[in-house]
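assembly run, all chains below
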Amino acid sequence: MKSDIPSQHRVKAGWLLLILLTGYAVFSLLAQSIEVFTDLPDKDPVTIHEARIAMLKPSLPVFGEVGYVTTVENEKIFAYERAFQNVEFLAQYVLTQYTLAPLIVRNSPDRPLVVGNFIDGPPAPGFLEKKGLSPVRDFGDGLILYRRDLGQ
Amino acid sequence: MTLLVVASFFLSLATGLFMMLSLFPCAKPKTGALLLCLFAGGGLGIGISSCIYFICLLTGMARYTAAIDLTVCLASLLVFLMQRRGKDLREFEDPVSGPQSSSQRESVSGRKEGGPTRLLRSERWARPGSRLQVLTAILFSIELIFTLISFTVAFLKEPHGRWDAWLIWNMHARFLFRGGDLWQEGFASGLDWSHWDYPLLLPLSIARGWTYTGGEGNLPAVMGYVFTFFILGLLLTSLSLLRGRIQGYLAAMLLMGTPFFIYMGTSQFADIPLAFFILATLVMLLFQAGSPETPGATILAGLAAALCAWTKNEGFLFLVIVIGSLFFTTAYLRGWNSSLKRTAWFLAGALPILVCVVYFKTALAPANDLLAGSSVSAISSKLLDPDRYIQIAKAFFITGLSFTQGLFDVRTGMHLTLGPVNLLLLAVYLLITGVWIEPQDKTGLLQTLSILFLMAAGYFLVYVLTPLDLHYHLMTSLNRLFLQLWPGIILVVFMVAGPSQPGASLFGAPQMIPTRPKVKDRQGKKTKRKETQ
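ok done. output:
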C-alpha cells in the first residue's frame, strides 16, 4: 500500500482545490446576486417597454403587417448594432415586435399603418412628412400611431 | 394556472422517465440510477412532448394536446410495465442468467455486461457514509442553495430573459401560441433577424405549456430553470454511477461555479437545452459502450442526439458527428457487424424526432443565413485565407480560457478573463490526480472525446466559412458554443481523473475487495454475504 500514499494525497489535493475554487466562484456569484437584489428596480426594462407598446394593441389588427419608424432611419437600426455602436434602437424595434406578435412589424415606413417609437427623441426634421406619415393617435411617451398617405 | 403548468411538466417528465426505465441498461434501478432516469428522462420527455405538440399543430389538433400527452404517457407506462413483467418472468424462469447474476458472470468470464455491472461497481466506489462523501455532499448542498438564490435573483432582474430570448426563442413561442390556426405565419414573415430557420424544441415547449394554461406565464424562465438543473442532476447522477458519488458532486460543483452557465440558464436561450441533450447523448454513449449487447442506451443516445438537432442548428453538426464517431469507433474496436448494428439502433432512436426535424426544415423553415447565398468561389476564397484561421484560432484560445466567466463586452473586445473555474482548472485537476481510465470505459471515452474534438473542429470550420462579419460572429456566439460543450467536457474529465484505485479504500472506508461470485442455489436462495459487501 505504500505506493498508494502519494496518490491518496494527490487525489485529496485535487478534490480540495476543486472544492475551494468552486466554493469561491459560487460564493462570489451569490455576493453579486445579493448586490443586484438590493438594487432591483420594481420592473425590468422589457416589462416596462412591453406595457408601453401594449397600449397600441386595441388600435391595431391582430394579424397582418404594420410599419415602424423611430428616431433614426430604419436602415440604421441594424447597422448600428452590427457596428457595436448602439443596440437600443434594435432592442426597441425587436421588443415592439415581441409585444405585438403575431402582428408583423416591418422595419419600414412603407405600410398603411406605422408604429412610431420615439423614446429616444423625434426623428430628423421632415422625415415623417417625406414618408407621408400622418398621426392617427399619440399614446404619449414617444409612442405614436401613423397612417401612411398611400398617394406618397 | 400553476397546477396546469405542473401538469404539463409532469406528463413530459413521466413520459421520459418511463421511456428511460424501459430502455436504460439497468436491471433493477436503485436510487442513483432512478435519479439518472429522472433527470435524463425529464429532459428527453420535454423534447418528445415538443414533437407531439408540433404534430398536433400540423394536424390542427392543438386543443387536444393534453389528452394526447396523457395517452402517450400512459402508453409509455404500459410499455415499461410490460417490459418489467417480461424481465421478471425471465428472471423467475432462469435465475442463473437473470440480471442479478450477470455481474457474477462478468466476474468469472471477464465479459463486460453493462448496466448491472456498472451499478455494482458504483456501489463499491461510493459507499454511503464515508466522512469525505458526507462532507462533499454537504458542501454540494450549500453550493446548490447559493446557486438557486443566484438563479432566482437573475430571474427577478430579467424575467423575460436576455436578447436572444425575446429576439428569437420566446418570440417564436408567442407566434406559435398567439397565432392560433395561423401559427405558421412567422416562418414566412421574412423577419430574417429573428432566425425563423432555428429548430423549434424550445419555442414549442413553451407554447405547449401556454396551451395547457390558456395564457402566457413565466414558462420560458421555468424552462431555463428546469434544463439548468437537469444538467446538474444528470452530470451528478451519471458520474456517481460511473465513477463514484464524490466525482459526481465535484463535477456538479464545478458546473455551479461556472458563472456563464448560470447566466445562460436565466437568459432563456436554447444553448442550455442543447447542452443538456449533448450531455445526455454522451452519457448514454458511455453507458452503451459498457453494455454492447443491449440496444437501450444506444437508442436513447440516438433520441438525445436527434433532439439536439431539434433544439439548435448546431445540433445537426452534433448529430452527424455522433453517427460518424459511433460507426467508425465501433467498427475499429468491435468490427463492422457490431458497428452496423449499433448505428442502426442509434438511428432507430433518432428517427421519430428526425422526421419532425426534416419536415420542419423542408416545409416550414426559411433558408439559414449561414448557408444562403454561399457560392463556391466565396467558400474557396475563405478556405484559402490564412488570416481567417489566425483570427479564429486566437478567438478560440482566448474564449476557450475565458468563456466560463460570461459574455465579452462587445465594445472592449475579446480579452483573457480567467475566473476561478475554467479549462485550466480541469487541466490542473487532471495533473494533480492523474489519469485513470477503466478498461470498460475506453470505447465510450474514445467516442465521447472524438465527438467533443470534432465538434470544436466543426465550429472552427463554420467560422472559416461564415458569410457574416467574422469578428462580429465570433464575439456574439463563440462563448455560447463552448458552453454547449462544457458539461460534456466536465463529464469526460471526471471520467478519466484519478483516483487510481477504488475511492472507498482511499479514505479509510471499508476496502472493497472483489469477492468470488455468489450464485443462488437451486432453490433460489441467496448466499449470506452480499456481492457488494
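The first helix of chain B runs from residue 2 to 23.

The CA atoms of residues 257 and 421 of chain B lie 6 Å apart.

not gonna interpret more than that til we talk
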